[in-house]
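call fold(seq) -> tokens
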Amino acid sequence: MMDPSVEMSPTTSKSKDRLGATSASPVLSGSEKYMKQLQSPSVRKLFSENQTVQNLHVIHNLKKNYRHRKLFEIWAFVVALVGLVLMLVENEVVMVAESPSTPLSEALKTAVSISTALLLVLIVCRYQSHTNIYKLQNILPPTASMMSVYWPVLLLELIVCGFHIPPGLSGSVPILQFRHTVEANATLCRHPKNLITRIQGNSCYLSYSYFYDTSVGYGDYAPVTYAGRGFLTFSGILGGLLILSLVQSIFFGALELTDNESRVKYIIDKSRWDCQRREAAAKLIQTQFRLKKQQQQHGTNPRLVEALTLHLFECMEHMHKFVRGEPRNVRTFEEEMDAHIGGLLRDMDDMQRQEDAILARIQDKIRRLNAACDCILSSQAS
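ret:
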């Protein structure tokens, strides 16, 4: 909130210097008195910004950044999963076609590049929200930035997540695989039958071309390289648990009900509960009536009375369960705090607008008063 200030015109200041203390105009005296009242500490404190409003804004921004960071993490996982699926499909297309590049594989590479770019943007947004949270919690200084604090980790994550084969790039890499054996017959080089062999030194090798896309990382579905086997082992041990936990968190977040959905669910549960409660009450009354009627008759059957008594107690217990299990539409503490803070912020905004309107009216009256003073002083000087 700006402190109330008055911009006096040059004519007024010069005239005041000329007249000094001899000016006894009632308009000028009222203006000076009015200005002293506006510049008093109590008025300045009244128009100063309230610390409570700042705290409420900090809490509101902190919760908003927490929500944004959660959304960025969820969408980054979804985009990364879609990119992996596209890479697997691209690898399958290349393997079936037995060619390093096909039009369909190039289209899939383009889709992979788009998903990778979107993933990198989500990662940057996630780190930005994380930095804002730490600044609001006073863990980082207010002048800290994302690049100045997290640039090594962010750069490493961008490099790892951004590695892929771009569209238009394809080729083949020759690999020599050695097999050691102690049998002499296995080392013989017989005449090839529709097979291409290569003699290198004193050894004979089978030469063949096997096309696969390196965007998956390490070969085909059954990796033959040591890096691929290590990655497969690591993924089998930890990757399954990690993916399962992430998928569960996404499903639980998607199944979370909104306020309107919770209200509709409460109405449905309340209607069902009322219907079942009425049926249980009717059964209780019917059982009590049958038991009373059976007891009033002559020659009652003790077993029937005992059975009706047990059934009556069961109906009573059932009714007590209905009383204890009444559905309620009670919001959580976090939701109550959100609603309370939102209401306080709206009230503070209304008060701020009212104060701004009052200050604008005061400034307008002061400008009119200055104009009147200038007119009076100019008329007196003339």
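The two ends are 41 Å apart (CA to CA).
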